[in-house]
Write a structure and sequence with these properties.
This protein has 410 residues and is α/β, with parallel strands linked by helices. 29% of the residues lie in helices and 21% in strands. It has helices spanning 12-31, 99-105, 160-177, 198-207, 233-244, 250-260, 272-285, 316-319, 340-349, 394-405, and strands spanning 38-41, 55-62, 68-75, 86-90, 109-111, 123-125, 135-139, 149-150, 185-191, 218-225, 326-332, 354-363, 366-374, 378-383. It is globular.
Length: 410
């Protein structure tokens, strides 16, 4: 029995924290038994009865001495685990728990819309889960995210390079422990900041030093949603997005372009005109919800600040031109965190020819968004009215995913 999702929107950070804490307390006796095993979870706090899907949790040790313990949730497909695709999901942020992917984005659970003070959120089944067609591993990465931890210094700081290496080490050990999934079509997926990580992990699997280790898996490609791709590009594209969405006037946009020369990161403190116009832009844009400008702005949450992101691997723009596996972007066209035009510009910069030009895609007789396909087997898709993650339009996002993963035309 699938419970319907409600339309009330709770603070996902509050819900995620409360459920994370309750899950930790629920499973603590298991965790203390061993850090190198996995366990089947049949029930969750806030859900009545046994779970109607297969959920496994566990730790995998990575690093030279397995000093880094990576926690994961693994949900088997509702359909055929022997043949359906397997996906490794890396949540963005950086440092967002993979529980957000499990409960708010592509996973099988959601929450009741009403929450009483001091009570646990009631868990519902998400009818739009991507696990209807695929098995998904939700990984807490980098170290220090969610339940992942280090046995060494508690102030350990993880960068992009380490996150890539830990992803590869995790995959190797996870497949060693789950050999029954070796032949399944395998994809790497994620959104937001994971756009910096996922493509490089994909390239390492295909062309890296340890590519022979992964030659045994059936790697097919990657999936990204509203991804960061170039450091600080989002700040610049937000100005264009604000003009296109009528958040600022044409005159202000032109003044910004003239005085700032299209560069809005590390503005020269002596450029008085640029600072003045940028301040006006900030006042106009800050009153809307960055993740989806159609949604009400939540005063208790701070919007993402890309200036605090982790160090970036500068090879992505060059090495991505070599990647010709099956891949897709899924961009909510009302996301101001990573505007869709940034992702499209990055794809176009790869200089692959268009094989299916810009056109609408439909849900029944209604436009669901627009799409374009390229010669390197890459598909770009916008979701009309969508935001920074699948959370904003779960049904539409799941339809795009399902059609793409089974090879059906959008």
């Amino acid at each position: 029995m699938i419970s319907p999702l409600t339309t009330n929107h709770l603070d996902p950070m509050v819900l995620s924290f409360r459920l994370s804490l309750s899950i930790l307390l629920h499973l603590h006796p298991l965790f203390s038994a061993s850090a190198y095993a996995h366990w089947t979870v049949n029930s969750l706090p806030g859900f009545s009865g046994d779970l109607p899907f297969s959920l496994e949790t566990g730790y995998v040790g990575v690093g030279d001495r397995e000093e880094f313990q990576l926690f994961y949730y693994f949900v088997k497909t509702y359909s055929n685990p022997k043949t359906d695709p397997l996906i490794l999901w890396l949540t963005g942020g950086p440092r967002c728990s993979s529980l957000s992917g499990l409960a708010f984005e592509s996973g099988p659970i959601n929450f009741e819309g009403e929450l009483k003070e001091g009570s646990l959120p009631q868990v519902l089944i998400n009818p739009y889960s991507w696990t209807q067609n695929s098995s998904i591993i939700y990984l807490d990465l980098p170290v220090g995210t969610g339940f992942s931890y280090t046995k060494t210094s508690q102030d350990h700081k993880s960068g992009d390079h380490e996150q890539v290496q830990h992803s590869l080490q995790f995959l190797k050990k996870w497949f060693d422990d789950h050999p029954e999934f070796i032949s399944n079509p395998f994809y790497i997926a994620g959104n937001s900041y994971s756009g910096m990580i996922v493509p490089i992990v994909a390239l390492q699997i295909l062309e890296g030093t340890y590519k022979h280790i992964f030659s045994f898996i059936n790697f097919q490609g990657y999936i990204l949603g509203n991804p960061f791709t170039i450091p600080h590009a989002s700040e610049n594209f937000r100005i264009l997005f604000a003009r296109n969405m009528a958040l600022i006037s044409d005159e202000l946009y032109e003044s910004l372009e003239t005085s700032c020369q299209g560069e809005y990161v590390n503005i020269d403190p002596n450029n008085v005109e640029c600072l003045k116009h940028y301040d006006t832009y900030t006042k106009c844009a800050s009153v809307v919800k960055q993740g989806c400008i159609l949604w009400p702005k939540c005063p208790s949450l701070k919007e993402p600040q890309t200036s605090n992101m982790m160090p970036y691997l500068p090879t992505i723009g060059l090495t991505m031109t070599k990647f010709e596996k099956h891949s897709i972007y899924m961009s909510g066209d009302h996301d101001m965190v990573v505007p869709h035009m940034e992702t499209h510009a990055w794809i176009k910069a790869l200089n692959y020819s268009v094989v299916d030009d810009w056109r609408p895609w439909f849900i029944d007789d209604e436009v669901g968004g627009y799409t374009r396909s390229f010669a390197n087997n890459m598909t770009f898709v916008t979701v009309k009215g969508g935001g920074h993650t699948p959370e904003y339009l779960r049904e539409e996002s799941s339809i795009v995913f399902k059609r793409w993963i089974i090879g059906e035309s959008l």
